[in-house]
Every structure is written in structure tokens, then in C-alpha cells.
Write a structure and sequence with these properties.
Number of helices: 13
Oligomer: single chain
Distance between the termini: 29 Å
Mean pLDDT: 95
Order of helices and strands: HEEHHHHEHHEEHHHHHEH
Strand content: 5-15%
Shape: globular
Largest sheet: 3 strands, antiparallel
Amino acid sequence: MTSDDRSGRALAAVIARVTLTEAEVGTRFPLYADPADGRWTTTGRGSWTGGFWAGLLWLRARYTGNAAHRRAAADCTARLAPWAEADTATRGLIFWYATAPALDGSGAAELRAKAARACLDSYDPGAGIVPWGAALGGPRLLARADAVPGLVPLLAAAGPEGAAVAAAHLHRHLDLALGPEGAGSGGRPRPAWEFDPATGWHPRADPAPGWSRGEAWLLLAVADALLHPEVAAHRPERLASAAEQLLVRTRALTGRAVPPDEASRPRGPVDTSAAAINAVALLKLSRAGTPRAGTCADRAAAILDRLAGAHLSGPGPGRPPGMLLDGCYDAAQGLAVRHELIWGDFFLALALAALDGLVDLTRV
């Protein structure tokens, strides 16, 4: 079987899995599924992952062209509306990925604009970021790697002011993660910082440098910025340098296709969701005209081939096909360390849909 054949079959399997998941979860939002039987743990409001479920429903609607699938995606997206006013930078993850793949006339664009305006209003000039926020618990003035992806293109949709804040937010995270104080063991970026108005920024121990999903989030955010000229116009040379630093320091082009969840524990759990995010980021970089565009495209294809060939469940008893297995939610807490993760499914489907021509990655 060629890699193109495998990609096509993998996309069909993931889309079919979406329909099975929909029948199981109803109006709730899937979070992670047991690798043994595929049963989902769900949330009522979606938390920070709700946009990925809505995004998967939109990808299914694009794949099938079915009017009922379009309605299901629009209904799911609308249920996320209360999060627009929530105090969390993860609104980037929620609203960009829930609305960017949407079809016209669904109301998604209006919801995206409302969320972008709310995020813009929450920008803290002293810290230089849209704060992590208090909606998910813990300190509010945090800069975390997972607070950047999605938020960059979401803010860019809010006009020139939004593009400026998107650039400031991203560059502050890059200053922290890639600066001299941000380097962890082996030069890995430090993904989490806390701001004190009196003393400035201080590194946090958790998550630690070498968190593969955090590294993938940062690479994705830089790729998105490069694809948005209104954001890239702010310090364009820095973005190109940051992309190169991330590729080198995280071994995105040379390390294992499916990385360990933590670089410091190479024999610990792997994280297929980090690999899927990396694949999308690399495909975006290949479309951004970066010096390593061809290498990025080849590496993305190799990652997707590995995911489809070694980590996607096939037909058989016990569990459904189309599950992206071996995702690691939180190794430190022992939570869902070898599971199907809804964001892993989404990014795998997004990358495969891009290869199939269903979506334009320069716009999603």
C-alpha cells in the first residue's frame, strides 16, 4: 500500500470514528477514550478541548457533504458560545479550531469574531500577553505554550489591533521559552512561566522543559503567524529565527516521529497527539515558504504515515477502528497516558484532510 492509499484510508477511518463518537456522546463533548474499548470520558461544556470536537464535526461535514452532518457541526459550535466570555487564553484553542474549518453561513464566523474581540479586550499590556486566566483554575497571570496556538490566528481576525496583540502575545511567549533563562536540559524550551507585577516573569516547574506537546504547540503558533502577513509583519526576522530554533531545539525534524511525552523520560509514554500537532505545524511551515519547506513537508508525511500505520486502530473485536491510540494527556498525574485524545484525532484528521484537498491549511 502506498502512503497516499494509507492516508486516504486513515482519513476515512477517522471520519467514520467521528460518527460512532457522536452516537455515543450526544450533546456532551468527548475528551479521551479508553484504548481497550473506545468508550469516551466526556465533559458537559467542552472545557479547553471542545473546539476540537466541533472541528472534527466540520471536517466530517466537508468530507461527506451531508446536510445533517453540517447541522450537527453548527449545533455543536453554537454550544461553545458561553466560552467566549470565559477568562482563559485557551479560547484560542476552543474558537479557532471550532470555527476555522466551518462552512459558510453557519454562524461560525460571527462567533469567531465575538471570541476574538473578547480575547483582545483581555490583553494585559503589563505582562504582554492574553493571560492564561482563571477559568480553568490556578494562577491567572501565566504564560503557557498551550495558550498560544489558535489564539494567534483568532486575534489576527480582529483587525490591525488584533494582529498587533497576536504578535505581542506570541513574541512574549517566544522571548520566555527561547531566551537564555528559558532553556531547560538539552536546550529544550521552557513552556510555562508566571508573572509577578513587582518582579516580572519567573519559570514554573510544571510542565517542565521537554514536554513534547508544548513544543508542538509553540511550533504550530509560529507557523500560523508566518501564514498571517498582518502578524508576520511584526518582527518577521524573529519569526523565521524562532521557527528554526524550534525545529532544532525540539528535534522536530530529526527526533522520533512519535515523541515521548517528556524528553527526560525517553522510555516513558509517547504522545501521538504531539506528533499529529507537529505534522500540521510542519505542513503549515512548508506552505509558508520557509527555507526548509521541502524538508518540513517530507517530515510531516513521514509522521502521518507512522501514525496511520502503527497507531491507528483497525477493524477487529473489542474496540472501533479509526482511534488514534497512544496519546498522553497528563503523564505526571497518570491521566489517560495511552489513550485516544480528541485533539489528537482532530489534528490527524486536519493533516489528512489537507493532503486530500478538503481544507486549505493556510486558512485553518
